[in-house]
Sequence to fold (520 residues):
Amino acid sequence: MTTKDQKDNLFSLVKSLTKSEKRQFKLYVGRLGVNADSKFLNLFNLLDKAKTYNEDTILQSKIVKKQQLANVKAHLYKQILISLKLNPSHQNVRSQIREQLDFASILYHKGLYKQGLKILDKAKDLAIANEEKNLAFEIVELEKIIESQYITRSISNRADELAIQARDLSSQNVIASKLSNLSLQLYSIILKTGYVKNEEEAKIVTKYFNNRLPKIKKKKLGFREKLWYYKAHLWHSFLLQDFLNCYRYASKWVDLFYQNPKMINVNPVFFLKGNNYLLEAIFFIGNKPRFVEKLKDFKATVDNKKFIQDENVSTLVFLYTNFHSINQHFIDGSFEEGLELIPKIEKELVKFESRIDPHHKMIFYYKFASLHFGAGNNKACIAYLSKIISNKSLSMREDLLCFSRVLNLVAHYEAGLDYHLDTLLRSTYKFLIKMNDLHEVQKEMIKFIRGLQDIYPHDLKNAFKDLLERLKVYEDHPFERRAFLYLDIISWLESKIENCTVQEIIKRKYLAPQNNRRLF
Fold:
């Protein structure tokens, strides 16, 4: 069975259906007796029972001939989507507005202008109230067409009113489009390369940001424009590792939803993502009390029965809840406590298998590996890292791939698996060079591990102290400190010098009164 077979779009869609959706589909196609023995319904029943997609099995069933298969599959795909569209669970404000727009268009073509305008007026109010300004603009354009044929004495006033509405909506849509484009472009940069690596990159990103940021008057921005404005600033701050500003804009983003609570269910994905970035920013700052407070607020909202969850939303809830449930243990070094989360998450990962992309799965593995490393379980750490390193098709998040290899080196050393350390060193060095990601912290680490075999045991502690002094200068460096976000080398070295665990060192640092990372 090929990978292509297993990822057949129709088969994936059939397997995504719930019991109630399958029942509704059969009721939908059975509304006319002629569909009872149709090829597409028989194909649906076969795919519903199948565990994997196999074209030979379909043809052997004699349901459909080979030359007909593509057309029958396309027809079945379309009928399933129509059935899902009719399902109340998939109907939201946007679908309601589009439906009204379609009804008005039908009435217009039948010459029933007054009825069409009445429907459009209500749909427009609904669109504006829910910040669906692209749809509102589309409605105004249809109103203009109908008004040009439905002549009344008030046409001159009506024409002015519609012209002003069209102009204002168009202007707001242009601003939202420019901000959303900028946000998406910055997001793609951070996904591909991670944080900026030097002053030159920082200048390029900031120039790119400033050149594309539209001139606006904040007081005139609506919910949607503010949302994109905060998102664009958030991504700019993340790229520069300016985590205080990340916290600032993520807070504005989340507060925007709590100030407009009805928007949480209208735009649940944006609400979830805003909370994700807020928690990530607090995590990088290292304020556990604030982190726990915001995570608790987030869980309370998504666990509330009023919070609407479809498959997409429930997947994001799973990802963000578990990512940050793990992260809270990194802040104060409670790694052993965090290990208890791993079996539960791995079990749920199977359930979400078809909905979670490889990139997010690898993030889980890196977090699992880091928990085990912090708890001193180096072989378990290596096992999870091997899942990332052996994944040759993973092209996103270069920084994650690079630090997985560095942590792998350290874990091999800690586990006493030094019989092929030279080979690991060479492959890691080559990979980092290829990725153009060899920075000072990594250079120092590789140089140190390479020289370990020539150091006498009684000189080891001094060697660790020497490396610690060399790395300390990079701890607050604006571009080198990214290394410590993925792997706390400093705490590891201090644990070697003091003959204790990494967990003990991080816990002690967190509880120290002078710990600046806990302050905003």
